[in-house]
């Protein structure tokens, strides 16, 4: 008797809750697949941590998802994508499971920004670690050497989202402070360089006005994933198609459920994960 093939899932990893917004749009675009979401909420945010620590945490998360029958992992965290993605991709490509695939969200955002800008002046808001890595600057200039990039680190935003304070005066004050430096820069495109920021897009739009194009990874990644799976049919054929999503968190799950229930409009079941 032939052995029944295991049906595999798509894993989504973020340092906390921001990737839930990306997952929401992915599920809306590709509802047929099974997904597993992992938020490392116990150790979020990653934005102030060292490159070595970010790499270690990201490697642990990827390992957890692969051990739990994910064939493809999307690192829905720009800090992890900028500091660890390439090294981890190389590790798995050369390791015992080269068929495992790992994708990031930073490059798709850069591609979309260079496609949308008309004056080659692009703003980026991101975590301290992502800004310091200059990953967006590198990727944008690879695509267009003449582009001008203006970055701003926004260290307060992720902790506020993780604390459930996205719709507060405290958040609005922080956003105004972080977006003020772009005044007079004549940017026509703004990259939300952290998955948490997509949750704040409406408030950001109110502050920067209607004439600047906002690049939010939540709206870009699903289309990129769809095309990737069409191109890699051998991988797509291994994926389970029962429209199920499992949620895992390394920390307290109350805020996770609160935000997740608002985004997905379901009563979310969240299990505890231990990364090592």
Plain-language structure description:
This protein is of the alpha/beta class and 276 residues long. 45% of the residues lie in helices and 18% in strands. It contains 13 helices and 10 strands. It has helices at 19-29, 51-67, 78-83, 85-94, 106-116, 128-133, 135-143, 157-162, 169-179, 201-208, 217-231, 233-236, 254-264; strands at 9-14, 35-39, 70-75, 101-104, 121-126, 148-153, 189-193, 213-216, 245-249, 270-272. The strands form 2 sheets. It has a 6-stranded parallel β-sheet, sandwiched between helices. It is globular, with a radius of gyration of 18 Å.
The DSSP helix count reads: 13
Morphology: globular
The CATH topology of the largest domain, please?
Rossmann fold
Question: What are the secondary-structure elements, in order, as H or E?
Answer: EHEHEHHEHEHHEHHEHEHHEHE
| Biggest sheet statistics | 6 strands, parallel
What gyration radius follows from the Cα positions, in whole Å?
Answer: 18 Å
Low-confidence stretches: none
Quick one: how many beta strands?
Answer: 10
Mean pLDDT: 93
Give the CA-CA distance, first to last residue: 38 Å
As a percent range, the share of strand residues is: 15-25%
The CATH architecture of the largest domain: 3-Layer(aba) Sandwich
The CATH top-level class label of the largest domain: Alpha Beta
> Which structural class is indicated by helix and strand composition?
alpha/beta
Number of domains: 2
Helix content: 40-55%
Sheet with the most strands: spatial strand order = 4-3-1-2-9-10
């Amino acid at each position: 008797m032939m052995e029944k093939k295991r049906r595999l899932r798509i894993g989504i990893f973020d340092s906390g809750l921001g990737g839930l917004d990306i997952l929401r749009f992915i599920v809306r675009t590709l509802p047929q697949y099974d997904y597993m979401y992992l938020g490392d909420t116990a150790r979020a945010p990653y934005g102030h941590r060292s490159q070595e620590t970010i790499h270690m945490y990201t490697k642990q998360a990827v390992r957890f998802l692969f051990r739990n029958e994910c064939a493809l992992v999307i690192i829905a965290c720009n800090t992890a994508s900028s500091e660890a993605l390439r090294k981890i991709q190389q590790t798995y490509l050369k390791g015992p499971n080269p068929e495992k695939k790992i994708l990031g969200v930073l490059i798709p955002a850069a591609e979309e920004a260079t496609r949308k800008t008309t004056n080659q002046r692009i703003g980026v808001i991101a975590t301290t670690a992502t800004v310091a890595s200059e990953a967006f600057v590198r990727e944008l200039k690879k695509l267009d050497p003449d582009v001008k990039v203006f970055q701003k680190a926004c260290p307060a935003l992720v902790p506020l989202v993780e604390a459930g304070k996205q719709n507060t005066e405290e958040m609005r004050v922080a956003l105004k402070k972080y977006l003020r430096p772009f005044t007079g820069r004549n940017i026509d495109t703004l990259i939300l360089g952290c998955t948490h920021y997509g949750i704040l897009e409406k408030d950001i739009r109110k502050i920067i006005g209607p004439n600047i194009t906002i690049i939010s990874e939540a709206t870009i990644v699903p289309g990129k994933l769809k095309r990737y799976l069409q191109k890699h049919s051998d991988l797509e054929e291994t994926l389970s198609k029962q429209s199920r999503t499992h949620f895992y968190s390394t920390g307290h799950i109350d805020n996770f459920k609160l935000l997740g229930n608002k985004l997905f409009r379901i009563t979310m079941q969240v299990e505890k994960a231990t990364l090592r």
